[in-house]
Amino acid sequence: MAEPKRYGAIITAVERYLPDKIVTNHDFEQILDTSDSWIRERTGIVERRLLEGKPTSFMAAQVARRLLARRQLDPAEVELIIVATITPDMFFPSTACLVQDQIGAGRAWAFDLSAACSGFVYALATGAQFIESGTHRRVMVIGADKMSAIMDMQDRSTCVLFGDGAGGVLLERSAESGMGMLDFEMHVDGSGCEYLHMKGGGSLVPASHESVDQRLHYIRQEGRAVFKFAVIRMAQVSLSLLARNGLKPGDLALFVPHQANLRIIEATAERMHLARDKVMVNIDRYANTTGGTIPIALSEACEQGRLKRGDLLLMTAVGGGLTWGSALFRWAV
Ligand code: ACO
Fold it and tell me: Which residue range forms the structural domain that includes residue 114?
């Protein structure tokens, strides 16, 4: 059980942004040796959204504006903006800096957080610390990825899996005890780099004609290895976090898992003995938007009225790193 906190970090608003352009599995059939049935059966994905002509910061700023509007806040009331992304607009400045400027959050500081598909839960745990310690009142946590910027459209084993999108939450201070983030558990196994990475463009392999020719500026994944890891770790970290808080999966009102593959989600739910109606799934419409999946799914769940005050919410992800983690909340609004 976690130590008592000075303040609670509660989620007071959840928003999402999805680009308008829909690309279906049938569209991929036109350019690749693949089929709608292969993609559906192996992943649960039917279609995804792709962002054209704009960068990741555009989607993140849309989410930020919607969060402000939802709470009727002035941008100057935001003190910190964290953007979880692996597809920043550029190496520097961070995408969070660009969002700060685009929304005119003149008093905020801002930084990006890189933990691939675990980025949003990592950022949530990070942002909550600033609220719980009493140093901040309002922190924006956004997960945003334009995966189409690093998808190799000649590699059928990866490009069909991803999409573009963003979501985010506003974390605010609460004096009420036992509300908001209750606990989190995060992990890394850096030896898993070989299974999921993008090698080109950094200091290891700076951009060159050769790095482009070798297609090193695209995501590479050993799908089977990541699949096995995800199935074990998602359930393990979720059960561990619940157990150390004296809870069981049956106590949850909603489980929002990272949306990478429907089979991973189903296997995780099965290992946790969690009823299907408590598991949020929308991978069919958006595919894997990396940092975006959990806040996008949470935003849709809220719209569907699946959370009410006092409910327990668990969010869990696995991603490149390899990283994995889980965050437990008591819903406060
Ligand atoms: N269409 C048709 N056939 C395909 C496609 C495709 N799009 N992609 C691969 N295949 C073929 C392969 O070439 C292979 O053919 P072969 O048997 O003749 O060699 C066959 O299908 C089976 O390939 P596998 O890779 O073994 O298929 P698998 O059942 O493992 O499914 C998948 C692949 C969907 C990628 C799965 O492994 C997976 O979802 N892995 C986890 C992905 C994930 O969760 N990533 C983490 C997040 S990403 C992040 O952090 C940024």
Answer: 8-177
